[in-house]
Amino acid sequence: MTQPPAIPHAETLLLQSLITPTPGGIASRVLAKAAGGNVTLFAFDGGQGLTEHTTPYDALVLVLEGRIVLTIGGNPVEAIPGTVVVMPGNVPHAVDAREPSRMLLVMLK
Questions:
Q1: Which residues does 106 contact at the CB level (< 8 Å), separation at least 6?
Q2: If exposure means fewest CB atoms within 10 Å of the residue's CB, which of 14, 15, 29, 101 is most exposed?
């Protein structure tokens, strides 16, 4: 069964308009979801993040704005706008936004 689109098809959309940052918090929005994975847009206020966790799938983190430190398997990796980081499946990882930041997470199943 095909999932309904998380965002409209065949339209140009500004990524910044698709999510509203939460002061002192984290916001997320699924942009696309399919059997092969999903794409989620995140907005973090500075000092916010995701605690260490593990997923069974590889993921790509594309930083759109701000500065994010990803800790992958215990190793910190700094990511800035225009960079991409691969987080391998089954490896513990965490996210720490050092300043207000936005990232696109592409989960590959």
A1: 37, 38, 39, 59, 60, 62
A2: 14
Nearest to 17 by CA among 59, 64, 69: 64
Backbone angles phi, psi at 11, to 5 degrees: -135, 145
Q: What is the pTM of this model?
A: 0.91
Helix (H, G, I), strand (E, B) or coil at 20: coil
Distance CA 31, CA 15 (A): 10
Per residue in 28-59, pLDDT (tens digit) is 999 999 999 999 999 999 999 999 999 999 99
The tens digit of pLDDT for each residue in 11-27 reads: 999 998 999 889 999 99
- Long-range CB contact pairs, 8-11, < 8 A, 24+: none
Amino acid at 13: L
